[in-house]
Amino acid sequence: xxxxxxxxxxxxxxxxxxxxxxxxxxxxxxxxxxxxxxxxxxxxxxxxxxxxxxxxxxxxxxxxxxxxxxxxxxxxxxxxxxxxxxxxxxxxxxxxxxxxxxxxxxxxxxxxxxxxxxxxxxxxxxxxxxxxxxxxxxxxxxxxxxxxxxxxxxxxxxxxxxxxxxxxxxxxxxxxxxxxxxxxxxxxxxxxxxxxxxxxxxxxxxxxxxxxxxxxxxxxxxxxxxxxxxxxxxxxxxxxxxxxxxxxxxxxxxxxxxxxxxxxxxxxxxxxxxxxxxxxxxxxxxxxxxxxxxxxxxxxxxxxxxxxxxxxxxxxxxxxxxxxxxxxxxxxxxxxxxxxxxxxxxxxxxxxxxxxxxxxxxxxxxxxxxxxxxxxxxxxxxxxxxxxxxxxxxxxxxxxxxxxxxxxxxxxxxxxxxxxxxxxxxxxxxxxxxxxxxxxxxxxxxxxxxxxxxxxxxxxxxxxxxxxxxxxxxxxxxxx
Length: 480
Description:
Elements: H1 2-39, H2 48-51, E1 52-58, E2 66-68, E3 72-81, E4 86-96, E5 102-113, E6 119-126, E7 134-143, E8 149-160, E9 165-169, E10 181-190, E11 196-206, E12 209-220, E13 225-233, E14 242-250, E15 254-262, E16 269-272, E17 277-282, E18 286-295, E19 301-311, E20 315-318, E21 322-326, E22 331-339, E23 347-359, E24 362-376, E25 381-384, E26 390-392, E27 398-404, E28 409-417, E29 425-428, E30 430-434, E31 438-444, E32 452-462, E33 467-469, E34 473-478
Parallel strand pairs: 2-8, 17-24, 26-34
Antiparallel strand pairs: 1-3, 3-6, 4-5, 4-7, 7-8, 9-10, 10-13, 11-12, 11-14, 14-15, 16-18, 18-22, 19-20, 19-21, 19-23, 23-24, 25-27, 27-31, 28-29, 28-32, 30-31, 32-33, 32-34
């Protein structure tokens, strides 16, 4: 019994294995079939209507898009086959005017053979004298001779009025200043085939930009010529001048132009003064240079005055730039002041002046001048305030002097010998009033014991040091 059950179980297991194997085989076969089907190349069904291609070789004669009546429009097309061996069709060309009325239609049988390459078709349309003005539509198509019509492409061209003109400028324009008037003389000729009223105009161009225009009209019969004149006031605002063009137009049909030049306003200024020599100055004094700046040009301008002092031992000093706004022929006073430092050296100093003005964005020098002055480093100056050179025995001598210098006064001394003395004595004089640059100094002697001579001289020394010495003086001491 147990053996029978075991055999049944094994039989069921074998059947399951066989079913799985069969399933795998079927899947593999199905995949192979699908792969084989995908590898088959299915040839497309060729449609001749999709195979005919058309290209305009020359849209219009000379690549023109505008024509006048009585002219001829030449249209050229190229037909070719793609993905089709050969095909016979009927090519058709229609032209419709601006009123949507067909004015031209032509058909032409065409046999296209792919291996022979493209085939060119040429057509010509003569525009009648009574043709409408406007845009004409051109449509190229083909058919199989039955009901099927296939549009290939559409193009446009325009018919314009048979109007033309010739413009000629008769005069030349001399260079002018802003604010003046120029005149342009021109003539217009109707070279078309119909009487026409032309729109005329004058355009003034500067640096490629239109700065002024004026319009007008002139009616001309065929081959008639008339002169038209224009006047233009050059704006005073064109102060920098420049190169311009005057262009005369007869509508869109013709134009002529002539160059001319606007001269810039002259920018000029002058530095005026009475004398270029400012004389001699001492240390700690001031040098003052008074000048007049004048606008001698043709236009109001802002002038800039620069000034620089140059002296011994590479001495340099620059004044701040001074600006002044001047109308034409206007003048203004400018004062340059400089303190003479006690560090300045003796010698000649030059004040170099330059006057500038803006001309077309560039600073232009319009004038230059030069002053000079001399710096003197003087030794102390001694001046007697009392000068009584007589005395009596038993009295005193009182001396009072004024000492001045451009530097600091360091020392004032008196050297003397009394009637009863045999050797010179030197003592400092007393500063009783003033400053270190200028002061009053005094000396009071002792009472003279006897008559005779009181001899003395005075010396003053500054900080350089420089010393000034007086000549010797004698005071007669009389008996009482």
